[in-house]
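User: What would this chain look like folded?
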Amino acid sequence: MKNFQWIVCDLDGTLLNSAGEITDENRKAVELLNAKGKQVIIATGRHDLIAKKYYYELGLTTPIIACNGALIKDILSDKVLYMKVIDSIVASKVLNFCELKQLDYLVYTPKAIYYSENSKRINIVREYNNSVNKELQAPIYSVKALDASNEDIIKVLVVSQDENILEKLHKGINKDDKLTIVSSGKGLIDIMSSGISKGGALIALSEQLDMDLKATVVFGDNYNDASMFKVAGLSVAVANAEAELKHIATHITLSNDESGVSHGIYKYILRVHPEKIEKNAAEIGVAYKLNPEKTCFY
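Assistant: Here's the prediction, encoded as C-alpha cells.
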C-alpha cells in the first residue's frame, strides 16, 4: 500500500466543525501524523491572517495555502512563497459591482482585511480576533480606507444567498475571463485572479518542497477543493461535502461534526484499528484516549 507522506486539509467544513473548532479527535490525529514525521498542510479559502491560530494549535511548521491558492506563505517567518493579485483595473470593476449591488463583501490584501459598510461577515473575523492574542489578530478596516492603503487585492469574498449570484458575477465582472470565481461554501463566493485554484497552488508548492503528489492525501468538502482532489494521490471527502466533490473523491469519511478527518487519517494513512489507537499513540508519546462513542471505522 502507498506510504502517504503529505496530508493537505481544508479548514472550514472539513477540519473544523460547525462551531469553527478543531475537535479533540482531529487534533490528536494530526498530532499522531506530526509525531510520525508526516507533513500536514492547510489549504483554505481563508486569509492566512485568520488561520494562524489553527497552525499553532496543531503544532504545524509547513507553509499554508491561503485565499484558495492565490497566496502561499510560510507562517513561521511570514515569508510569501507565492502570491497572485487581481489586476488593479479588474479589481476596481469588482468593487464597483459589489457596491452597486450593495453586496456584503470582504477584501483580502496582503496585510489586512477590508469590509463593506453593510458587512455582517466581518463579525466572523472579529470573533476570530477576540479568540486570539493581540499579536495574532487580523488587521481589519472599512473599504473606505482601501484606496489610501494602495494595497494590492488578493481576493474578494462575496456573501450572498442569491442562488444566481455566480451567474450574475460572471456576467457583470468576468466577461473577459480575467477572474476565477468559485463557491467556497453555502452563500460564499470567492473572487481571485484568473488561473487561481488550490490545486494549482498545491502543484506549485510541491515543486518548491519536492513533494510527491502521488504520496499526498487531500481532505475537503466544497467545490474549491475539487482541483486538489484531481492532482493528489488520494482524496477524501467528508460526509457533509458537496455531491460533486464526493463523486470525484477516492473515499468518503464521516462529517466534519463527527471528526471525519481523524477517521480518514486512521483508516487511510496510519492504518490502525480502534483497539490499536491508544497503543500506537503511547508508543510515540502522544496522549490519546479512545472515545468509543465517537470513533467508528468502516
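The first strand starts at residue 6 and ends at 9. If you want, I can go into more detail on any region.
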